[in-house]
Amino acid sequence: MKKSNLNSTQVNNGSKHLDSTIRETYCNCVIANDASRKIDFLILVIETLQINATDSLLLKAKNIGLSDDFSSRVQFWKMRCSNPLRNTHTLTSLTSEQIDSLVELISHMAENLYPLIRQLLSSKEPKKLSQERWLLFTSRLKALIRKRMNIKRSYIASLLGEDNNEPFRELLVILSLSCGEGGANRLKASLYHQS
Amino acid sequence: MINLSYRFDQNSSSLQISGMPDVSNGDSENTIGILSSWSLKIIGSPLLEGEKEHLDNLMQVILKYSRSYISGIRKTFVSNKKIITISPFGMSHKLLLKSTKEGINPLEIILDDSELSDLTRCMDLLRFDPRFNIRWDINQERPFRKKYILNNQSNSNKNINFLYALIIFSFASTLLILFPTNDKYELQEFTNSSQTLSKPTE
User: Which of A102, A113, A163, A188 is the residue whose CA sits 20 to 30 A from A40?
Assistant: First the structure.
């Protein structure tokens, strides 16, 4: 593992070099099994943090020039239905182009929502205020999970049943580390495996 | 000689880079090609300063750690020159900085998740900034091997599952041992039937 991580050094002399390096990086890689689940849950967290997030997501996708998959709510919903934990799960998997687009979109949205994400993750905030924020966040996220996901699945049942906020915190950490260009590369790398 | 200075602010972290264009490399007057000094201010910690080599080491560990953390892996990373270490510290993260000057004790900085992401964002902004034409000694983010992720993720869940399996097995075994068998009854029935069978022959 260490060997594969120590092959290339980075030079800040233009995007062409970076693009080709990124393309080479993903040559012998496959999409991780949990990629669609992870992406759908990250979008769910974005929806929790922002009211009417779907409209914002579609508008952002249009602004950054993403493909036709983001032209309508239905197309977008179809992509998200590749998550096997959804109520309306379709037996499709995300293509690498769709993953690239979704990663870019999540990264941009995370950048917009970074102040909110940071507030939730910070340990320096007043304890009472932090508890109230977490209560509001978890109740909204759990309501969305109950509405969209298959609650008979053990993972979903455990998310809804437990008072432990650790899985939700992990999702917020992923979003906080996904901001910007470097964050998008980091998130993309986490959605693939070396074959 | 033009002296340039750029600053990257992210809530709790502020990274300032000073340098000058490398004219021999064809840098424009707004581009830093030669780094002369840098300083990093993390709220609640002393000001960090150093040379390019130190910044390279800092970037190496922070970016590697964040890359692993986003995949759910929390493990210690040591920089190439072994002057900077980052490791998990409860829910937080411990950054240990050893000075290259003699007689100075190592500096320990505890970062929470928000401070770690602030620092990572500062590093990201720096390495993708087109105003810098500097070769950083850092690696491109790469996907991990499946085995590497499984080996490095926390084993708490695996252990809990094993414990549950052990409890269920011992409970079922005890129940089966205590449950009375009907061997004797079947034996009696067999002897009776043999007697009845033997009667007509007499």
Answer: A163
The CB density around residue B153, as the number of other CB atoms within 10 Å, is 15
**Cα A45–chain centre separation:** 8
Side-chain-side CA neighbours of residue B169 (13 Å): 6
By Cβ distance, the residue of B127, B137, B141 closest to A186 is: B141
Take residue A80 and report the two structure tokens written for it.
């998200």
Provide the phi-psi class of A10: left if phi over 0, else alpha when psi is between -120 and 50, else beta: beta
Q: Mean pLDDT check: name the lowest of A94-98, A154-158, B100-104.
A: B100-104
The tokens for B51 are 């040379």
The amino acid at B3: N
* Gap between the terminal Cα atoms of chain B: 129
d(CA B119, CA B59): 9
A183 Cβ partners below 8 Å, 6+ apart?
A: A107, A110, A111, A177, B120, B121, B124
ipTM of predicted assembly, 2 dp: 0.86
CB A183, CB A168: distance < 8 Å? no
Chain B residues whose CB is inside 8 A of the A123 CB are 91-92, 112-114
Q: Which of A33, A22, A42, A170 is nearest to B146 (CA)?
A: A33
Chain B residue with CA closest to A175: the answer is B70
**Any idea where the domains of chain B sit in the sequence?**
4-152, 156-201
Asked if residue A115 lies in contact with residue A83, where contact means CB atoms within 8 angstroms, the answer is: no
Q: Position B51: which residue type?
A: E
Contacts of A104 (CB under 8 A, 6+ apart): A64, A66, A184
Residue A137: how many CB atoms within 10 A of its CB?
20
Is the domain covering B4-152 a CATH 2.30.31.10 domain? yes
pLDDT digits 0-9 by tens, B177-196: 887 776 665 555 555 555 55
The 10 Å Cβ neighbour count of residue A135 is: 11
And the tokens for A144?
């969305």
Give pLDDT tens digits for B35-73: 999 999 999 999 999 899 999 999 999 999 999 999 999
Which of the 8 DSSP states describes residue A85? T
Q: Please state, in angstroms and rounded to a whole number, the distance separating the CA atoms of residues A12 and B133.
A: 6
> Rounded to an integer, what distance in angstroms lies between the CA atom of residue B15 and that of residue A190?
27
